Amino acid sequence: MDSFELNKIIGAILGTCIFLLVTSFAAGAIFSPQLPEKPGFEIAVKEEAHEGAGKEAAAPSEPIEKLLQTASVEKGAAAAKKCGACHTFEKGGPNRVGPNLFGIVERARATEAGFNYSAAMKGKGGKWTYDDLNKFIANPKGFIPGTAMGFAGIQKDSERADVIAYLRSLSDSPVPLPTASK
After folding, report:
1. If DSSP codes are grouped into helix, strand and coil, which group holds residue 127?
2. Residues sharing a CB contact under 8 Å with residue 169, sequence separation 6 or more, in sequence order
């Protein structure tokens, strides 16, 4: 092979590279992508003015005593399916992202064995009363600021009462329903 043949091969390689480079620049000019004004997707979430405002926002419109009088355990079981992604409901069931909820009514907060609760939940203390469950399910982060529960809450009073009635039924000896005098 003489030098003339080698020059033709190198010239062909360089010519191909120049052709690809020019084609790339031309395609970039013709088909330039349009970048969005703001990158990402907007996720709609409820904003709270400040931590103190969260408690007022969590206050349900109807007292839980009145709501539980017409609550349906069957509807509550259906509505609680959305909770099933993070919680289990059967007796002795495992903890998932959230603790097992069997026997939650009147159980002391942050006491489910084997579950690592957030500091906010541990610091709240007390028991899960009907009223506290109602407020927590309505707005978890408003009732216990700093909780690790990422659920936005159930806004509809009747649906929340149905879920609480279902949670009440998950017990060996269900806690009596509250009366209006409490």
Report:
1. strand
2. 73, 76
Structure tokens at 13: 């390689």
Write out the two tokens for 98. 């959230």
pTM greater than the 0.70 cutoff: no
Find tokens 């939650």 and name the residue.
104
**How confident is the model over 96-124, as pLDDT tens digits?**
999 999 999 999 999 998 999 999 999 99
DSSP assignment letter at 108: B
User: Is residue 71 exposed (0-12), middle (13-18) or buried (19+ Cβ within 10 Å)?
Assistant: buried
Q: Quick one: pLDDT band at residue 171, thresholds 50, 70, 90?
A: very high
* Helix locations, the chain, DSSP H: 3-30, 51-58, 64-69, 73-79, 119-124, 130-138, 140-143, 157-169
pLDDT tens digits for range 69-104? 889 999 999 999 999 989 999 999 999 999 999 999
Residue (of 89, 94, 95) closest to 73 by Cα position: 89
Q: Would the pLDDT of 8 be above 90? A: yes
Cα angle: 121, vertex 123, 125; to 5 degrees: 85
Asked if residue 142 lies in contact with residue 55, where contact means CB atoms within 8 angstroms, the answer is yes
Strand partners, 127: 108
